[in-house]
Amino acid sequence: MSVLSVPPVTHRPAPGIHSATGAVYEERLLEEYQRTRDPRLRDELIERHLPLARRLAGRYGYSDEPFDDLLQVACVGLIKAIDRFEPGRGAKLSSFAVPTILGELKRHFRDKTWALHVPRGLQDLSLKLTRENERLAKTLGRSPTVAELSEATGLSAEEVLEGQSAGSAYGASSLDEPVEAGEEDSAPLIEMIGHDDDQLALVEDRLEMVAAWRELPPVQREVLRLRFIEDLTQREIGDRIGYSQMHVSRLLRQALATLAEA
Fold first, then answer.
1. In a domain, 167, yes or no
2. From CA 232, how far away is CA 156, in angstroms rounded?
3. 133 near 168, Cβ under 8 Å?
4. pLDDT tier, 248 (very low <50, low <70, confident <90, very high otherwise)
5. DSSP 3-state helix, strand, coil percentages of the chain (rounded to 5)?
6. 50 lies in which domain range?
7. Domains identified in the chain, total number
8. Residues near 116 by Cβ (< 8 Å), separated by ≥ 6?
9. 0.85 exceeded by the pTM?
10. In this structure, are residues 137 and 148 in contact, taking their beta carbons and an 8 Å threshold?
11. Do both 206 and 257 map to the same domain?
């Protein structure tokens, strides 16, 4: 993104405008622009208010956004303010332009800079905490705690933690990025996260066992249930279903062999 280039003003306003100075000159310039919509007049108005756009863009210098990009966005807001401004309402263009420029900058951060979509409320909360964190860090000489941020912002500890968590969605790291910057032999991030989940193999085993369980005779399913769910002994199972302990033992062996094979 390149910074807006403001061409030199070769057009001269209507006679009489240059006889005024300062605020009066600007007011007459705005009145003529509203009447004619001459782009050269707008260029001159932009040039006169570029310091304002630059100062407002500088408020977000704490972010990782390039300043040229922020200035570009601020200039877009300035142009919108000039186009919407209505002279004669008693307000100055600079006063009218400030909220418009700031709104454009905030919209840029909300819609263009976050790696993941985060609700606007959480974005504003994260930005507020970022600014307050930097202010407290300079005062305390260290990173502030959650309790200190909570007291300084009037937020609950849960809101502070939620805002900090949302802030992690602002940027994304490449999986090929080395874990330790500047180290040639540092392993990439992808090799340091994730691992083989042993439980995945059990999923297939369980599915096979479910199918095998359904194929077992009802008496074998009942013996398995009594043994491994109700934790009865073989003798107690025999008493419950009317079989001898030896018969119960044989049923268990047959059922377990079938499941093991599956």
1. yes
2. 53
3. no
4. very high
5. 65, 0, 35
6. 1-113
7. 3
8. 169, 172
9. no
10. no
11. yes
